[in-house]
Design brief:
196 residues; alpha/beta; 8-stranded mixed sheet; 27% helix; 20% strand
């Protein structure tokens, strides 16, 4: 059993030695320190061409990880203000601050998101931005309960039931929109309809 308190989960993530799992406003996340992203790729048996998403408690925590012109940054910030916290992942040009391990095949881009769930935000406020993905083996449906996650990933730190609040999460993943240099390209349609 690897069920722990929020404090222990946060410490496990910060240490870089553990993958952690926590609920989000979509499906539960597997998360690790960005520079330890290889832990997630190995645990999920995930292809290197499927990058991880950088999740944080605020847009301000994410902007250092992306780079663009002043006009682009202004536009991205307007989109973030409209949809974050929420189920929208923006794929933007990556700054040198992003560890290559997060997107091994194409380290020039990074997906960023702020989840709309108080518990996830509470954890991310303490850990700082984390590399995240859905809790499942690659190619399989997302796992939705702590019991399923523990069975599939016994080494992952999950929250004790008393720390979990009843959530109204969507079983749909986030909408993924990639900046093409002039417009948004929808890579995956989820719960949010982006007004391009």
């Amino acid at each position: 059993m690897t069920q722990v308190s929020i404090d222990a989960l946060v410490q496990g993530a910060i240490s870089g030695n553990h993958i952690v799992s926590f609920p989000t406003d979509t499906v539960p996340a597997l998360a690790a320190r960005p520079d330890r992203s290889e832990l997630i790729f190995a645990a999920k048996r995930r292809s290197q061409d499927k990058p991880l998403i950088l999740m944080a408690a605020s847009a301000q925590a994410l902007w250092p990880y992306v780079q663009g012109s002043p006009a682009e940054l202004k536009l991205w910030q307007q989109v973030a203000e409209s949809y974050w916290p929420g189920a929208l992942t923006l794929v933007l040009p990556a700054s040198p601050k992003v560890p290559a391990a997060m997107n091994p095949i194409d380290p020039t881009t990074i997906g960023v998101r702020v989840p709309n769930l108080p518990l996830a935000l509470k954890i991310l406020e303490q850990t700082g931005p984390l590399a995240t993905t859905s809790a499942n083996l690659s190619g399989q449906p997302p796992l939705e309960s702590v019991t399923e996650i523990e069975a599939q990933f016994p080494e992952v730190l999950t929250l004790v039931p008393s720390e979990l609040t009843a959530t109204t999460a969507s079983s749909l993943p986030s909408t993924v929109a990639k900046w093409s240099g002039s417009d948004w390209e929808i890579l995956r349609q989820g719960t949010i309809e982006l007004e391009c």
